[in-house]
Amino acid sequence: MSNSQQYALITGATSGIGYELAKLFAKDNINLVLVARSEENLKSTAAEMRQISDITVHTIAADLFKPEAAKQVFDKTKELGVAIEYLVNDAGQGEWGRFHKTDISRDIDLVQLNIISLMSLTKYFLEEMVARKSGRILQLASSVSKSPTPYLAVYAATKAFVLSFSEALAKELEETNVTVTALQPGATDTDFFHKAKAENSVTYKETELYDPADVAEGGYKAMMAGDITVQPGFKNKMQNTMNNLMPDTAVTATMEKQMVSSMDEGGRTSITHGASSRERETINAESGGINGDRKN
């Protein structure tokens, strides 16, 4: 099948790493099904992808915090009559704070989005891929997939699931010509920290963040090569290596230092990634301000 006949479905496609992955597929003349919550941002993103290449771009507005949304996305692809050759489960969020102080409904939402929706979409599309003996899946794990992370306890635990789940599937699928790749990015210049209310953390304010385009390129190449895992960036690779050598108690202590509130009165205050900035503006406009509902 030529690229012009293939489709990639990307969740969280209107900002951050998902947006940059969509651009890479478009450059390779692969058609797109973009999934996100905001109709407005989906339309803008679709138009931008069509400017890159003469491809077909479908959009599906879906709230993957809802249990029924994953099946609705799958059903919509059936209505469109498209077969998904590449599935990118990019959508995911976190919540900063001590677990005993965070809202349990928000914690449950994170499990729904980061685990249940990802697992469901993987199930639906994987069955078709195995049947036709062709397909690639890219799962957004995280550099914290193997790092218990105070102040992001639920998020890190969900990403540990994504990594373990993806590695297990990769083994199961060895004889099928279907591959699963887990992308483990470090802290990246996206709207993640805004949505997680973690903008005052040491990591966000005081450390250098990865460029979403560079992270996406690393993930894209690894997926196309059929690699099981990928950790883009030298510092990210080094940190992952060190974490594998240290006991969990030491790793946890290190992660706590990175996630506590920063004492730096200056530091980072804004996103430089264009699509992620647009996402933040949309959230603030819909919620009536920066402290409103960020569940986008």
Describe it.
The protein is α/β, with parallel strands linked by helices. It has one domain: 3-Layer(aba) Sandwich (Rossmann fold). It has eleven helices and seven strands. The chain has helices at residues 16-27, 39-52, 69-80, 104-132, 153-172, 192-195, 202-206, 212-225, 234-245, 248-259, 274-287; strands at residues 7-11, 31-36, 57-61, 84-89, 135-140, 178-183, 229-230. Residues 260-296 are annotated as: Disordered. This is SDR family oxidoreductase. Keywords: Oxidoreductase. Its EC number is 1.-.-.-.
List keywords for this structure.
seven-stranded parallel sheet; 7 strands; 50% helix; alpha/beta; NAD(P)-bd_dom_sf; 12% strand; Rossmann fold; SDR family oxidoreductase; 296 residues
Write the layout of secondary structure elements.
Blueprint: E1 7-11, H1 16-27, E2 31-36, H2 39-52, E3 57-61, H3 69-80, E4 84-89, H4 104-132, E5 135-140, H5 153-172, E6 178-183, H6 192-195, H7 202-206, H8 212-225, E7 229-230, H9 234-245, H10 248-259, H11 274-287
Parallel strand pairs: 1-2, 1-4, 2-3, 4-5, 5-6, 6-7
Helix pairs in contact: 1-2, 1-8, 3-4, 4-5
